[in-house]
Specification:
heterodimer; A: 359 residues; mainly alpha; three-stranded antiparallel β-sheet; two-stranded antiparallel ribbon; 14 helices; globular; B: 425 residues; two-stranded antiparallel sheet; 2 strands
Amino acid sequence: MNELLSVISAGLANGAALALVGIGLVVIYRTTRVLNFAHGVLVLAGAYLTYELHVQVGLSYYLAVPLAVVLSGVIGYLLDVSVIRRMRGRPHFAIIMATFGVSIVVTQIVEASWGVDTLQMNDPIGTTSWLVDPRWLTAVLVAALVAAVAQALSHRGRVPMGRIIPLALWGVAVVLLALTVVLGRRTGDGAVVSLIQIVAVVVILVVGVLLALFNRSRVGTVSRAMAVDEEAAIALGVSPNLVIGLAWGMAGALAGLAGILLSSGGHTFDTTLGNVLFYAFPAIILGGLDSTSGAIVGGLLVGVTQQLVFGYQYRQFGGFVLTDYLGANFHLVFPYLVLVVVLLVRPYGIWGTKEVRRS
Amino acid sequence: MMLIVVLVVATAMVLLQARENRRRVPRTPNDAIRRLRGPSAKVWVIIGLLLFVCVPIGTSWIGIGRRHLVPDLLPFLPLSDFGLSVLIVSGIYAVGALGLNVLIGYTGEVSFGHAAFAGVGAYLAGYLGGPLLSQLATLSIGGSVLPTIIWLPLVAVGGALISALTGPFALRLQGNYLAIVSLAVLAIGQQVFTNWQRLTGGASGRTPLPNLGLQVNSSIGIGTAFRGTAGGNVFGTLVSRNQVYFWMTWALVALCCLLVANLVRTRQGRAMMATRDHVTSAALSGVGVSSTKIRSFALSGALVAVSGAMYGSFVQSVAPNLFGLQLSIQFLVMVIVGGLGSVGATVAGATLVTALPLLINNYGAQLAWVPFLQTDPTKIGLNEANLVNILYGLAIVLLLVFQPSGLAGAYDKAKGYLRRWPMRR
């Protein structure tokens, strides 16, 4: 039980980073219909800029992080201005190829600037971890799961007071999490939960709330209008350059944050960190390409399932060992298998809007 | 050898002339306009055949019998063994790019998974044509290896079958959803190639691959520039390994070009294009959209598998890391840089995209003038490999941004400009 809970919380932390990357991909996809293969570069930007500012320059970590997030946002915006904006209206996969070219170039620049060796952040979060009472942790997870299901149902309008109830349930989950951190700690026996995992989960919750608020704001409404019907939005006076640039900036900042989460907390990192993109893709497809809440749920789902496979692949289950049949590192493929199965049932993901073909 | 070349050229000319004569009847009477059209297809085919024969031989050999028949006509061509290998790899990739062009350019579906099919082709080649066959006792036919003429089509069939398996997903999904699911094909391919060790040799791959039926001996090639290592015997003339691969590859490219270019003129090809342009209208007009898509996947998979098999055969090894996302992206870039839905442009794009990094890499020593270049490998800094990759990436981005219609568009533009020359549009 303890081990299962540790694995799940590690999976949630990874999933939070995937979700951040995924939200950025979704935001870009909604405004421009482009899958950004250069997103891994923005993840790298977050990690390496924090490293530069914190370790090399010597700034405080808490100052370096927001600076790096903002700078990754600026890099995202610059990508739009320099390349994507010039290709507007071209076939989508031509733009996808261009983003891939950009990712080659920037990855090489990162390698030239910081080398290919693994680096360490030396951040104050460090490897701090606690032993937590499994009952508390189970309660938190169950509450979060119930809240997520309620949210999913309310998304389809199947819950009375649709907006209030999931919100209340999320509140319960957060309070339980806080109580767990304060009261649930044990000394002898318990599930291992590290500080960075809690930070990651809190970050994704905060980002989720901010996104919900953003979607209600004027700029958010305008962005959604662009996503629904670009021509109509432009005709109503929306500046596409502004909205799309903003989406890229936002995506860059979130990806930078994901990069920081993945490189802090005692993790080592190198330029392969950008490959996290290829697990964010199944995550956003699971959730539905154009839904940010779908990206969060998809990200967490992929993170947890991946970690479960990773944690248990060498375990004996009555003489049956996973790796004997499916090979080592099966966790790298597993999200894609889940993806294939889900898409065969729901071709537009769990949350995605079905494209209606009028022709 | 010489005789065969002359015969081939002559036959081609006769055939083309016959076709020309047939076409002549309904032709426009306006001779002036015709004269302005530029070199006809006949001229291009002759130039192509001449290049096909001469490039791997160089200038001196042609001149043996009849005193510089093609005097230093081709001095600018990369007539070194390395240059030849660049052209071979270009040709091999061109076959795969042509396959992907069927899918993207004509059917309008995007796939990132085709590198996996190239891998399947390479491993299949290893088993069907190579000494590996005798290791798989059940498949062994008297312990001997199959000749090229048999294993290459078998590889194509295998690639088509595997590729058609992804068809059902293609029918259910559209656009970007399909693109990402095709990443799943890639991931699963990598997993299988790496972990099914009994079959694929694991991460280090398989080494003995079929060698196009060449006896490995250390003979020298015909012509002056080629002192290839492993050579072979073609009609009693010693040729170098690279020369054989060049002719084999580019003959295959020509064959595939013909196949794809003619496909567009058939019912099947028109069905593909109708599906690409408007699914609903196509279905209403009686096109079986599902079967068309699956056939398109199968054909592209077959060509890509052949390409992978040829590549494995040329470099004499297969390993999982050869068939990752990098290769898929390379195929896609070739198609787009060349120009969608055009056969010649795809071949040109493949040559450009393949040759660019290889050439930059080879002439890397001349990059010493670049500032910030870090030559000390122990220090962090912009080293040569970084620079090569940056130039490659930049070339892709710039081509895509500034030349949207690809090389085909650039060619058309240049041709139009020259034709109207003193006048503006």
